[in-house]
Design goal:
Mean pLDDT is about 90; it is low at about 245-255. This protein has ten helices and ten strands. Helices cover about 35% and strands about 25% of the residues.
Length: about 260
């Protein structure tokens, strides 16, 4: 924990699953404001289950989940949104038939009148590329534009914690680099706590400051991303030889926050 900010989200001993059968057990994870915590692991490791447990989509079978010191482990999904948790899922992250403007309105469903319009304009300032697309249906956007819209929609509710589930999935390498280095890093620099679930591990290690390796539903390793980047055998040890993008991490990774 040395050098890390105080936890804004703190998960301790988390167990969750389906039909009361745990998929993840005794998982611990912390992330502070201004920090990116990376969750990595092979398919089937329990990453999506962990995301659902944090957002409230799945009930906890055990453990505690605290946000800014308050226990939220038994709160409903909508109450966690109101408390400051936002999530961008890997799939169904935008409403295809709706326009960019309408997607943002869906994200700001608690806002009314000028409050909603002002918040939409704030999103266009943060993501100016979307401003010229406000009347276009989301299904007509490119993969990178859709992900930008998905993140903007989640930001409409002003979350202090943002959970990003595979934000670079199906994106071209250059677009994936931009999403992580420009958008995700910028969100953390603005003071948000970010939980990043990502398969492009070497790229994600460049922007995150702390990493958790999840295998078989348990955290097998938690360390600074500086330490993880230095582990040449990380792919073989934890993720399997075929893990995406792990073989050659870039040398100029982002320094710890």
């Amino acid at each position: 924990m040395t050098g890390r900010p105080a936890p804004f989200l703190s998960a301790s001993g988390i167990s969750a699953g389906y039909d009361r059968v745990p998929v993840i057990t005794n998982v611990g994870l912390d992330v502070g404001l201004g920090e990116i915590a990376l969750v990595m692991g092979p398919n089937g490791a329990g990453k999506s289950t962990l995301v659902k447990a944090m957002t409230g989509e799945l009930p906890l079978l055990g453990g505690t989940l605290k946000l800014s010191g308050a226990d939220i482990g038994r709160r409903r999904e909508e109450d966690r949104v109101a408390a400051g948790i936002g999530c961008v899922p890997q799939a169904r992250d935008v409403f295809g038939p709706l326009t960019v403007q309408e997607n943002l309105a869906m994200g700001g469903y608690r806002l009314r009148g000028k409050g909603l319009a002002n918040r939409q304009e704030e999103m266009y300032q943060i993501f100016p590329q979307l401003a010229g697309m406000r009347r276009r249906p989301a299904r007509s956007l490119s993969g990178g534009e859709r992900k930008m819209l998905a993140i903007a929609r989640a930001l409409m509710a002003r979350p202090r914690l943002l959970i990003l589930d595979e934000p670079t999935a199906n994106l071209a390498p250059a677009i994936a680099h931009s999403v992580l280095h420009d958008i995700v890093s910028g969100l953390a620099d603005a003071g948000r706590a970010i939980v990043l679930v990502e398969q492009r591990v070497s790229l994600a290690l460049e922007v995150a400051s702390w990493g958790y390796v999840l295998t078989d539903g348990k955290v097998r390793l938690a360390a600074s991303c500086e330490e993880l980047r230095a582990m040449e055998d990380l792919g073989e040890m934890f993720l399997g030889r075929g893990a995406a993008d792990l073989a050659s991490p870039s040398p100029g990774g982002r320094a710890q926050r």
